[in-house]
Amino acid sequence: MQSQALADDWKIFTYSALAVALLVWALIAVAAVRFRRTARNAEPRSQKENNPALEIGWTVAPLVFVIALFGVTYHIESDVERIAPNPDVKVAVNAYRWGWTFSYSGGPTVNGTSQAPPEMVLPIGQTVALTLTSSDVAHAFWVPDMLFKRDAIPGRVTTFDLTPSKTGTFLGRCGEFCGLDHAIMTFRMRIVSPADYRRWLALEATQ
Amino acid sequence: MSAADVADRVTPPERHDILSWITTTDHKRIGILYMGTTMLFMTVAGLLAMAIRTQLARPGQSLIGPHAYNQIFTLHGTAMIFLVIAPFGLGLANYLIPLQIGAPDMAFPRLNATSYWLFLFGGLIVFAGAATNEGAAAAGWTSYVPLSEITVSTGLGQDFWIVGLALVSVASILTSLNFVTTAFIFRAPGMTMWRLPIFTWEMIATALLIFMAFPSLTATLLLLFIDRRLGGHVFDPAFGGSAVLYQHLFWFFGHPEVYVLILPFFGIVSEIISTFSGRPMFGYTGMVLAAFAIAGLSMGVWAHHMFTTGAVNNPFFSFVSFLIAVPTGIKFFNWICTMWGGAIRYPTAMLFAVGFLVNFLVGGVTGVMVASPPVDFQAQDSYFVVAHFHYTIGGGSLFALLAALYYWWPKVYGWMLDERLGKIGFWFTFVGFNVTFMPMFFMGLFGMPRRAFTYPDAGALPGLNLTATIGSYVMFIGALIFVANVIVSARKRVPAGDNPWNANTLEWATTSPPPEHNFESLPPIRSPRPLWDLRHPRAATSGASEGS
Amino acid sequence: MTTARGVFIVAALFTGVLAISYWFIAREPAGTMLLGFMTAALATVAIYMFFAEREADLYADNPNATMREAAGEHVGTYVTHSPAPFWIGIALTGMVLGLVTAPAAAGLGLIALLFLIAVMIVRSR
Lengths: 207, 548, 125
Prior knowledge:
The structure holds 3 protein chains of 3 kinds. Chain A has 3 helices and 10 strands, in the order ααββββββββββα. By secondary structure, chain A is an alpha+beta fold. In chain A, β6 and β7 form a beta hairpin. The longest helix of chain A is centred in the first third of the chain and has 32 residues, at 3-34. By secondary structure, chain B is mostly helical. Chain B has a single domain, classed as Cytochrome c oxidase-like, subunit I domain (Cytochrome C Oxidase, Chain A), CATH 1.20.210. Chain B has 17 helices and no strands. The longest helix of chain B has 36 residues, at 66-101. Chain B is globular and about 70 Å long. The two termini of chain B are 31 Å apart. Chain C is mostly helical. Chain C has 2 domains: 2-62; 84-123. Chain C is built from 5 helices and no strands. Chain C starts with a helix and ends with a helix. Chains in contact: A-B, B-C. The interface between B and C is large, with 80 and 58 residues.
């Protein structure tokens, strides 16, 4: 999962949506205003109700457009869903009502609730494989700054990977309605340098 | 023996007492019952929405705690979808279909009435859950498992929700059977299928959708009930069941349902735009084919609600979801071309119809956005999606609903709604609606989840939420203006006459309100616009193809 | 009747194609079964209409039909009122509420429903 790819998809689709909306709004505005009934425009100009060329045109052109959009989507999604064969870090995430447990493979287990949210520390530039599940109801692991969420469903283990590209602390939250504390079931994702990450691991090992 | 002799012998005079309304099987009365009931449910669901917006006006408020809040948004969504928008379309169709096809009633009048009572009682049962020990259902209108399983949602409210909706579901299926049979068999002489008004065509497509999708809802509700109360473990992962299976079953119904929520309103807008532009519906054949293309394709997109599960074939559902944009676009271009070259009058109904075009466009293009899984990975379960579906159902269906009220009220009651109050109400509703829901796209992009009773006091969220709340109060004023309009107009009772809008379909060829048997006599039917042909006897009818 | 038949035939064919392509693309059993059942339901109606409705000859489908041609035919009397729908609603409501709260009430509701349907059938003869 690369946030850059996700951001690109957002840009392409937002601009496409805006372009279509502006075009059609303009047509609506012209039709609604120019053909108002006034003293000079008292009767409709014609009762013509077909234009086969136009009708075929506005079927084929949008069809081509959406197929192109699908092509873009498919390409970007394949990129986003790719899972690295040999990740540097592996974290198993368990969501529950109402908190998160992060179990680092060969490392510490971090737990936190909505009252005291947990923090997932990750090294920048290294591949991280996250496996997600839940021990009660459906939740979702959502980091808005990374433009990504994935559902944590009991009875299923879902995997995705990410390679952090920016240091900082990013808010994470639950993205699937799960009851009373759904809105405050947060966590933090802190991206640090690989050296700081090793230091953090060592610190956690002593606790 | 003539038809008149038969009529006098078997038709008693029309009754107006309460008992006659409880035992009625007249499609017009059933339509009024449906639409009136949806107005009452809409009042309650609307007040629930005002409660939501008031709680979310500032971050960290505790006017409404999470337990109450979860019931409130569950009831708001359930009511608006199942008890307001869908049944209003069905109720209006109940009133209009026999009139538009030149029939005296529906094919199965008693079944029709049964559907109404099942809808009413089902809806009341859903709300009655609020009076149970642990309150009403609180798992969202989608009621995902395992959240709605008995181990988590322990109260009776969830069961009331299940059985109430089961009744509503059965009612809808029975109604759809009635609509299709009536439209196929009960048309007047000369009313070939390709001369049907667009509204009736859209209702045939809607009925087909209900027929295809609602059995899945009924089955899903039954399975959920078995899990909850009869010892089942269909959806319980701890016993080998599947939580994802519920999502497949629910959304197989749930996605066609949203097209049930819009197709009747496409029909309403088509009728109104055509009448007030003074032109025929442009591209009639394309409109009909597009309606069925939308209905058919909508059966194949359900798992676009499950893109973030990682459990479904995203590309398949993404592709079919993109395809639906094409017939929807065809409809938009046809509406614009109907207006093009016309002499457009702007009574309130036409204002709401154009408002529909402006608003639904936003819903449509943002729908194409979330059809792309990488966009949906951020947007799913956030306020972006909330904004998207409120633009389609609110900015679209609700605006068309209001347009329909202003357009057909004179036919139903025989008197006009006040135009000045109507236009003022339109502007409050239009401005209020957009101020409420446009910020929500950004709220979602910036990470605000849906179904959340509060949000952090950081970034743009507090300002966006306050703006949305202010917009909702402006919309509320618009709603009050409509109520005021009804009261004021009821006092004035300006007579409507048979055809106050100079419209062209058959319901305007009879009195306002119509007699119990609908028509004293019918004009000849040689095109989709019989009344136009009456007014222009020598004009070559450039009607749609005259096959059957 | 051709258009009406066409609606169901095309719908059944379309959903059939959808079901088959969904299976080969996604290999997902739940969705395939749902699409398959939907196809079967539409095909049932389509096959019926294809064979049984061949001879149907509605005045409605004649583009040049006049009201006079069809007038005078006594095609039946119209029900304008009936107490059955309301009571069927009550019976079903009792039944489902009984399912949730008190199973005995469910049984009563079911009996009431069957009784009402029997009454309706007898009275319409």
